[in-house]
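sanity check this record:
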Amino acid sequence: KMRVTQKDPAQNPTPARFFPTLPELANPKMPTATMIGRRPTPPLLFALAFLGPALLKIAGGVGLALASSDAAPDGSTPPELVADDAVTAPHVGEYIAETGFYQSIELEGNGEPLYATRSEYQEIRVVDSEYYGKILVLDGVVQLTERDADSYNEMMAHIPMMAVREPKKVLVIGGGDGYVLSEVLKHPFVVHVDHVDLDGEVVKVCRDHFSWGKAWDDPRATLHIADGAAFVRNAPDETYDVIIQDSSDPWTWGDDGEVVDLPSGVLYSKDHFGNLLRILKPGGALNFQAETFNIPSDLEGISEWRKLVLGLGFESARYGSLTISSYPTGQIGFLLCQKPGDDDAPNREAIQKRWDEMVRVGNGTTYYQPKLQTSSFDLPLWVEKSIYFNDKVKSHLSDEF
């Protein structure tokens, strides 16, 4: 989630059209392609798409075929390969060069945004889809949709909240859309939430355009438009019961193929994780966005981040998984990290009771349920082995591995 490149508008003006053509996506050196990645492997390419006739034709009017062998002798596209109205309609899409994966969401009407602006850091758009509803798009990348935002945000919030006996003070880093904050505030134990986000314009847009935008009106919530790492660095020791970090990727790739650190990179650094451990109360929980296991470089990152936080002193760090159809590969995950010091963590019965009470008072959920408190950590065998098998630190796996 939140794969955002923060670009200088003077150096990267918004193109006249929203989306690079497929030949442009295949060529990282073409200027309209946005490159996002993490390792010296083929970069991830993302864009906001208008899949119109320009996508079906290239220079000289030659039609695009699915493969060169499919082209007719004269170079034209066979009739069965010509896109129908569903393909030529405006879409917002994402292409991952590392795996060759592409997906898109068809937009309503001509695809014109319901709202568009540019903040100091990024381009912000709200677009509309018949099935997915309103969609928040930052720098051409889908952040959330009304249809399935519940899955990611409920899991990011309720898994760590339910892992702590009485979470009273909470810190949310990132998540400028406000959805995680709205879920945290459903818990009756909460007396104060500090919400820190760098881009106040995102907060303003989401306050006006999404149903959960009233979360900041709750008197228990304090919004800080600030650098998350600096806020954590200056926070007192043992302040928070729960910390949730809903942040963007730590780095990307430049046009020259070199790694480019993004502003959010500091949120995945050793110093920052050490400060998060420091400001957590004993027994407190940290939950942070940890990418999908379906992209090889992401899977490497999951293992590396887990080893890093365990080495710093977290008692446990487990990767949980969730399904969300609007994100690449339909899967993303999180790392739930627990600080030592509380031997009285909630058991299954206590979690069920807390959730039942939330539902009774009208603060229920649509994706999260108490069973997921444990089952979300059950992973495919190949993923589990990749993350835990070679770990020198004792993991939750059985001895048979």
Observations:
- The two ends are 31 Å apart (CA to CA).
- The CA atoms of residues 317 and 337 lie 4 Å apart.
- The chain has twelve helices and 19 strands.
- Residues 1-73, 75-83, 392-401 have pLDDT under 50 and may be disordered.
